[in-house]
Amino acid sequence: MVCVLLLVGAFVPLPFTLTQPGVTVDTLGEYQGKQVITISGAPVRTTTGQLRATTISATNPDQKLSLRRALEAWANEDEALRPTDQVYPESDPADAQEETQRQMTESQDAATLAALGYLHLSPSQVKVTVNLGDIGGPSAGQMIALGIIDKLDGDGKGGDLTGGMVVAGTGTVDADGRIGAVGGVPLKTLAAARDGATVFLVPLGECAEARVNTPEGLRLVPVETLAGSVAALIALHSGSGTVPHC
Question: DSSP strand E in the chain: where?
């Protein structure tokens, strides 16, 4: 009987989604041949360095995992299992895609309002267009907002917000500049290090998760607000001020 149960368990689909490190996108540059952030109505700076939004890659919501594949993923630090209903609130693939795109659109709008609010600029005068192709979800919000700030104002003193560094990060942002938690942080730090980042901005409440298998050479910087993120980046490359750490 035990053998039969193990055999059945090895092939019965499990309600989990397999996730892996996904692409990272420099919000100061291009993605899929198009500028990520386009601004009109205000002078735009030429920037150096990178501000990379990080993603995770997930199996489709209708793709089921066997126990055997789940155990393989559990043993591999480059893969993680998450309940499918947490990754995809909508189980139908078409509905799931529509929902993640809706979240991205809302995230872009909030990031624009947060960045312009930080710079005391009016959204009626400055128009921001964001293109991230088929990437969905809300977790690129912080890095989009920082990209807008860097393009318009840099560090506020004529220099780049990044100080020429490759900075990656994750986190939602609301119109008031509050940074929110996301999922898949350990996988996103792997993606960030893979693509050359040395600094990773992480929502404060996810420090413990971010420390799981943190890649060597990647500095974790916890943040709670957009203003705090800007201050931390300036402190990093100027050598003055306090840089928070996990």
Answer: 16-26, 30-31, 34-35, 37-40, 50-58, 80-83, 127-130, 166-169, 172-173, 179-180, 199-203, 219-223
Residue range 8-20, pLDDT digits in tens: 444 456 677 778 9
Contact between 170 and 182 under an 8 Å Cβ cutoff? The reply is yes
pTM, entire model: 0.86
Low-confidence ranges of the chain (pLDDT < 70): 1-14, 62-63, 65-66, 72-75, 86-96
Residue 89: C-alpha distances to residues 21, 42, 63, 133, 146 (Å): 21, 39, 15, 21, 28
Cα 108 to chain centroid distance, Å, stands at 12
* DSSP string covering the chain: -HHHHHHHHHHS-BSEEEEEEEEEEETTSEETTEESEEEESS------SEEEEEEEEE--TTPPBPHHHHHHHHT-TT-EEEEHHHH-SS-SHHHHHHHHHHHHHHHHHHHHHHHHHHTT--TTT-EEEE--TT--SSTTHHHHHHHHHHHHTTTSSSS-SSTT-EEEE--EE-TT-BEE--S-HHHHHHHHHHTT-SEEEEEGGGHHHHTTTPPTT-EEEEESBHHHHHHHHHHHHHS-S-----
